[in-house]
Amino acid sequence: MRRINGEWAWPLVALTLTGLLLAACGAGGGGNGRPAGNAVPPSEDLPLVETTPPPQRLLIPGETTEGELEAGGTERWVFATVGGRLVTVEVWFRPATASGPEAEVVATLIGPDTAELVQAAGTVTLPPYIVEQELGQTGSYLLQLEARSGTPGRYTLLVTLSDERLLTRPEVYTGTLSLEETPASAFDGADSGWGFIWPSPRRAISGWYFHDPANPGHNGLDIAAALYDPIIAAAAGTVSFAGPSGGYGNLVLIDHADGWQTWYAHLSYISVMVGDQVAQGETIGAAGSTGHSTGPHLHFELRHLGVPVDPLVYLR
Ligand SMILES: [Zn+2]
Predict the structure, then answer these.
(1) Residue 66 DSSP symbol
(2) Which residues of 100-138 are buried (b: 16+ CB within 10 A; e: fewer)?
(3) pLDDT tens digits for 201-219?
(4) What is the 138 CA–ligand 1 centroid distance (Å)?
(5) What is the model's pTM?
(6) CA 115 to centroid of ligand 1, rounded, Å
(7) pLDDT recorded at residue 84
(8) Separation of 103 CA from ligand 1 center, angstroms?
(9) How far is the CA of 221 from the centre of ligand 1 (A)?
(10) What percent of the chain has pLDDT over 70?
(11) What's the pLDDT at 21?
(12) Which of 39, 83, 143, 216 lies 20 to 30 Å from 89, alpha-carbon distance?
């Protein structure tokens, strides 16, 4: 397969692809305009709701991050974990940026099933602190910080997940570890990573996460990407669909080992064709905003035996 090493190559790729697709359509005798050999679009009848979510940002457990709480404001942070781990949430404020040391803050942790797990209140000088002995579910968690009174101002946030507990893999994983090019380190208890790598150059979310409480039908993860950002294969596999597909816009599906499948939607360009073998990290297209989309981003789905699972748990 061709490899693309920079955005300059996209117009050329697009022209080449257009030529290939037109040639394929011509050879097929016209009709529905679909290239010969292309798979049936998987999801013409599936709705994809890509409205604008409340602002929420990706949080990497173990790494500090910065935020700012205005008067009456709420900040939302999303992180993923496997079930059974101990979590701590620490937040520190900068009194010089606050309206006063008594400005009140409430931290709320919401589980993948949208249930509120724990809530802690505090102030700028005595911030909320959360310790939850066991996060029971594998999936994406939402941490919400709210200014209840005053202006708490700038803060530093740290979420840690304990490694002391024995990790149990999600039941959907078959345990055979046969994904190609998967380093052993991805399976040694790291918080996420079963061989799938982040498919966009920007490690951030830009919209809905998996089964977001405000949009529970959203089966994927909206990953930040600028128009024409290269999108790469999360793991080695075979392209099983490449083309327009309803609300998904320009969509690529890649079939991986052990019944896994990845979806890459809203692409501006597609640089692979059905049947192509792709390596992990190989460019498959460019980010865009085709289909039902409110702006350039990558709608990414991960399915196992046809069932959508939370990508944030599996991507590293
Ligand atoms: Zn989406």
Answers:
(1) E
(2) eeebebebbbbbbeeeebeebebbbeebbebebeebebb
(3) 999 888 888 888 788 888 8
(4) 20
(5) 0.67
(6) 22
(7) 82
(8) 36
(9) 6
(10) 74
(11) 35
(12) 216
Instruction: Report the pLDDT value the prediction gives residue 33, as an integer from 0 to 100.
Output: 34
Has domain 181-314 been given CATH number 2.70.70.10? yes
Distance 180 CA to ligand 1 centre (A): 27
CA of 25 to the centre of ligand 1 (A): 30
| pLDDT greater at residue 197 or residue 164 | 197
**pLDDT band, very low/low/confident/very high, at 188 (cuts 50, 70, 90):** very low
Question: Which residues sit with Cβ closer than 5 angstroms to ligand 1, an ion?
Answer: 222, 299
| Ligand 1 centroid to residue 220 C-alpha, Å | 6
* pLDDT score, position 121: 95
| Cα 121 to middle of ligand 1, angstroms | 32
Q: How far is the CA of 151 from the centre of ligand 1 (A)?
A: 33
CATH topology of domain 57-161: Jelly Rolls (2.60.120)
Q: What's the CA-to-centroid distance between 4 and ligand 1, angstroms?
A: 25
The CATH 2.60.120.380 portion of the chain extends over 57-161
* Residue 58, both tokens: 């990706």
Per-residue pLDDT tens digits for 61-98: 889 999 999 999 999 999 998 888 888 899 999 888 99
Residue 18 and residue 27: Cα distance in Å, rounded? 14
The identity of residue 238, as a single letter, is T
Find tokens 């075979």 and name the residue. Answer: 238
Centroid of ligand 1 to alpha carbon of 300 (angstroms): 7
For ligand 1, the distance from its centroid to the CA atom of residue 161, given in whole angstroms, is 27
List, by residue range, all CATH 2.70.70.10 domains of the chain: 181-314
Q: Which residues contact 153 (CB under 8 A, 6 or more apart)?
A: 68, 69, 93, 94, 95, 96, 97, 98, 99, 103, 124
Compute the distance from residue 247 Cα to the ligand 1 centre, in Å.
Answer: 10
The answer to whether residue 175 scores a pLDDT higher than 70 is no
Q: Are 222 and 228 in contact (CB under 8 A)?
A: no
Please report the pLDDT score of residue 47 as a whole number. 59
The Å distance, Cα 119 to ligand 1 centre, comes to 28
